[in-house]
Amino acid sequence: MTGAPPKLRFRDPQVDMAHGAGGKASRRLIEGLLAPILCGAQAEPLGDAAHVNISGTRIAMTTDAFVVRPLSFPGGSIGELAVNGTVNDLAVSGARAVSLVVSFVLEAGLPTGVLEAEARAMAAAAQRAGVTIIGGDTKVVEHGKADFMYITTAGIGSLIPGLQTSAASVRPGDRILLSGPIGDHGITILLARGDLDLEANLRSDTRSVLPFVEALAAAVGSDVRWMRDPTRGGVATSLNELARDCAFGMRIAEERIPLNDGVRGACELLGLDPLHIANEGQFLAVVAKESADAALAVLHATPGGEAAAIIGEVTEQPAGSVLVTTLYGGTRIVDMLVGDPLPRIC
Amino acid sequence: MRFVDEFREPELITRTAQEIRRLADPARHYRFMEVCGGHTHAIYRFGLMDLLPPNIELVHGPGCPVCVLPMGRIDDGLSIAEDPNVIFAAFGDMMRVPGTKGSPLEYKARGMDVRIIYSPADALKLARANPEKHVMFFAIGFETTAPSTALTLMRAKAEGIHNFSVFCNHVTIIPAIRAILDSPDMRIDAFIGPGHVSTVIGCRPYGWIASEEGKPIAVSGFEPLDVLQSIVMLLRQLNEGKAIVENNYKRVVPWDGNRAALKAIGEVFEIRPYFEWRGLGFISQSALRIRESYAEWDAERRFSVPGIRVTDPKAAQCGEVLKGVLKPIQCKLFGKECTPEHPIGALMVSSEGSCAAYYSYEHRKASELVNLSAV
Asked: Which chain A residues touch B17 with a CB distance below 8 Å?
């Protein structure tokens, strides 16, 4: 390698929880410290998965680590998340997951029954997603040194023909599509922790989003410009990243965003914005204007996509920002999440 | 959702906005202060500014508990948290507010036992569950949250829970409004009055604002229709040359307040002779402290704290913004050194703080408009 080593822009003295919350701080950590050192100057734009060329064949590859408390919650568990998360990162990069490997970090004292249940949950999720688990590793740490268990999965996938997505291909006028109601996962976890004396009839939305990607690829192919599964940091963070990467604005209409009553109520009560809440089975896409209606129709026809909606469009201005129009024609900027969402009490 | 959707009904909102435009005298400039941070948040979140004619200016008031807390108090509370035997418990609102050596979240990252709780009763629960530790609740808030702190202290005393204490930062709203009205650089035509505070203190304590100062005030809820309807009421009063207290939050605010809550406050707390407010300085009789009869549960008596006054960074103009003299964007640090990610003043931390609200919801929009008009 030639030239000077890359300059590091990350100046924070220590790692804080905010650096793992998926918002601005996470992005600064990765772009300002890790990517320049690990990937060097030739680093590709940071997508959900990397595409690599092996002996003339392009494949997609990604990895994801899972830490969640509690381990299981209504609608899912850490094992299921670990499979779906990696399958989804591959899917939104335009690839069909083929095989996964898995690493467990286990805490001494973890009941065998819990580990067995998570292994079974992973096997079932893998079967549903049509992917094989082909290997892995296990480490055990002292009691109290991990939250029962951490799981890391890595996966490779084959590229889905006909898809050519990138932030750079996004143009003003393109439409923004969302597969269904947002915030179910994040609010379910928040309530499952039991710190709040709140109950709601909610379940995590963890699932594979590959069916949505395949449906779009088949129906509108190259008119799909960009895809993302809006996990940590929520829809707001995903769209802000897109706005910065493509240097256009995103304008979304509040009333078009699908939302379950339980999420809405909890967010009202706790002063949270559903646009910042994590999802584990939703799918966000930008599609050329001409193909938006066709794209919406196939999402509607895909099981689990019944509530899909066109939530907004790409605009020239405000460049680099996400603007929400409220029910009454007022507007507000929605930024990336800063740190973890913290409930507002007083 | 009941009690929410009715107050966000687009047609009613549109009609109320039209009524505002009809009532506002185009030859006049109106400056209305919304007292509560909750109002500020709602105004930005729902884009209500876009619905108002340009000659109605909304000025953000001091009613954001974390914003008015001086840094010295945060340092004092956190100095107690450095004791490995102490669990520091506070509302989520406090967690990112910077002290001299970092915010509670940063203390937590360094290994101190800092917990987010959702009610003072949860802090007491922590004390019961951790008898070998001491749980200190860092209490903040106006009259809204003071009753629940009071009831928790009464319970701690009744149950004889001795590993629990409260670091009391409760403040009262009336002296803050008076300080703003007394401020020579302040010109406010009328007030959108506190909502949640008024559920406790009622509407009577605002009487002097109308009768002595001649300023209309409408006690207001936090939904878009509440805020707009309050503006209608204030315009009507000004047009008719009246100044009275109106209750526009009758669904939760009784005129005389909540007697049981006031009684609990009186049982546990007394008025401090003076208390420092960020940006407003020392205001006499503006805060609560724990009575002698609850001394055992008063963290300020149990622990020795530095008690050092910490001035805000010189360039930060939190005080002027807090008083409504400056708009957030007019502060020299706004959006440069001071951002929600690296807040210098608390106004940039809380989502009710006017700087954070302005930063999150408005300022890039505003700069875009400036850019567009320059083209």
From this structure: 328
- Give the chain B residue whose CA is nearest to the CA of A316: B368
Of B50, B140, B359, the CB nearest to A329: B50
ipTM confidence: 0.78
DSSP A218: H
From B319's Cα to the closest Cα of chain A, the distance in A is 21
Rg of chain A, C-alpha, whole Å: 20
HSE at residue B44, side-chain half, CA atoms within 13 A, is 28
Q: Chain B interface, mutation test: which of A197, A328, A337, most B Cβ atoms within 10 Å?
A: A328
Q: Which residue of B has its CA nearest to A327?
A: B10
pLDDT (tens, 9 = 90+) of chain B, 375 residues, equals 777 788 888 889 999 999 999 999 999 999 999 999 889 888 988 889 889 999 999 988 888 888 889 889 999 999 999 999 999 999 988 998 889 898 999 999 889 999 999 899 999 999 999 999 999 999 999 999 999 999 999 999 999 999 999 999 999 999 999 988 988 877 899 999 999 999 999 999 999 999 999 999 999 999 999 999 999 999 999 999 999 999 999 999 999 999 999 999 999 999 999 999 988 889 999 999 999 999 999 999 999 888 888 877 777 888 888 877 888 888 889 988 888 888 887 788 877 788 888 887 776 665 544 433 333
Task: Tell me how far apart the alpha carbons of residues B2 and B22 are, in angstroms, rounded to a whole number.
Answer: 30
Nearest CB partner across the interface for A24, out of B14, B224, B341: B341
Residue A257, amino acid: I
Confidence (pTM): 0.86
Of the partner residues B46, B91, B365, the one whose CB lies closest to the CB of residue A345: B91
Establish if B346 touches chain A: CB-CB under 8 angstroms.
Answer: no
Q: Which residues of A touch B116 (CB under 8 A)?
A: 195, 342-343
Q: Does B140 touch chain A (CB under 8 A)?
A: yes
The partner residue sitting opposite B4, judged by closest CB among A268, A273, A332, is A268
User: Beta-carbon neighbour count of residue B131 at 10 Å?
Assistant: 11
